[in-house]
Design goal:
Blueprint lengths: L2 E6 L5 E6 L7 E3 L5 H14 L6 E5 L5 E6 L6 E5 L5 H14 L4 E8 L1
Parallel strand pairs: 1-7
Antiparallel strand pairs: 1-2, 2-3, 3-6, 4-5, 5-6
Length: 113
Amino acid sequence: MARFKIYKDKSGYYRFLFKPNNQLITLTSEPYTSMMGCLKKLHFFKKHAFNDRYFVRQKAECGSPYFTFETLSDGELLATSETYLTFASMENALNMVKKTAKRAIIDDLVYAL
């Protein structure tokens, strides 16, 4: 089952990550200073993740494709995917996110790194 997890990074910021198949981390959010700020952005992501217009396909300096999730109003970056070996594997991961995010459960424990 797809799952969101919230964690506190080494700098003390809150982030969420998404596992569409409960195994591999597909994307990680930007850092937020509060748990409430992180949850607010997580819920925004869940609500809009089915809509392809929020996703931007990118290419890393090494040439590996990845995607980001950004707001439409001001282009605020909310989350960034892992990098992929091929464009096709990135698209497969992106489609999995779009299909599973809305119904994914939110793990209510906060993990620390």
